[in-house]
Amino acid sequence: MTTVAKPISGARKAAIIMMALGEETSSKLFKHLLEDEIERIAKEVASLGKVGPELGEQVLGEFHQMTAASDYISSGG
Question: Over its length of 77 residues, how does the chain's per-residue pLDDT go in tens digits?
Fold first, then answer.
C-alpha cells in the first residue's frame, strides 16, 4: 500500500524552521512579521510536537532552495 504525504502548510513549515533556528534567532525574525503571522506560527509551534529528521531536512532544504533562488534573482542572475 502506498501512502501519500499530506501537504504541509506554510505556517507549519515556518514553525519547523523557527524551532530549528532557536529562540534568539527566531525572536529577531518575529520582529519583521505581522501580528497575525506571528500568531499563526506560534500556534503551530505549540502544536508541533516531535518533528522527524526526514521532515526537518525536507523543510530546511526547501527553505534553503528558496533563499538561494532569491539571492540569485536579487543579484541579477
Answer: 555 567 899 999 999 999 999 999 999 999 999 999 999 999 999 999 999 999 999 999 999 999 888 777 777 75
Residue 26 Cα to chain centre, angstroms: 11
- Report the length, in residues, of the chain: 77
Torsion of CA 15, 16, 19, 20, to 10 degrees: -150
Q: How far apart are CA 48 and CA 14, in angstroms?
A: 11
Residue 49 in contact with residue 19, Cβ under 8 Å?
no
- Taking the model in full, what pTM does it have? 0.80
Gap between the terminal Cα atoms of the chain: 44
d(CA 9, CA 1): 25
